[in-house]
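[Automated response] Your request has been received and processed.

Submitted sequence:
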Amino acid sequence: MENKNKMDYSKFDEKTKNTIKYSAIWNAVAMAITSIASSLAVYYFASDIYNRMGIYGNAFARAYAPQLINFGSLISSIIWGAIWGAVAGYIIAKFYPVLMDWQKKITGNRLNTLFKLLFWPYMVVALIYLLTAGGFSYIYGGFTGSIIVIIGDLVAGFVYAKMMEKNVGKYYQ
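Generated structure:
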């Protein structure tokens, strides 16, 4: 006897397919941006420390300085960005009304568009990073690394949210 209430998760409507696809693509791009920003921050952080060490620092810098861009980390970030982007796309496609209800209760409907719902969490994380890790970064090696990471995260979040709005926003009006 077949259960008529059983959902068939192997079939997705066009909205769900497109949301998963574009979320995977644009989250992978966002993670690439974040990874590049993080690599640059580590590079400049290490360079600042080695420069403060004088002549010994130059020898350390030549021997131990990180790569400007860590390609292994970049590729890993892109792959994981696509995977988690697909998961996020599924959640958005299937639970958007629930997410909008939560944001109405929590923010008073300030995150009332797909763009705002996707971008503002990046703003909150950037602020938390600035208040926590940014202070430690300043103490140990200057503020340049923190600024690079914050700007990278905000650009990544903006690109993800804007492109999601452009590619699938018609489903979430």
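Summary generated for your ticket: The chain is about 80% helix and 0% strand. The CA atoms of residues 20 and 90 lie 5 Å apart.
If you did not submit this request, please reply to this message.
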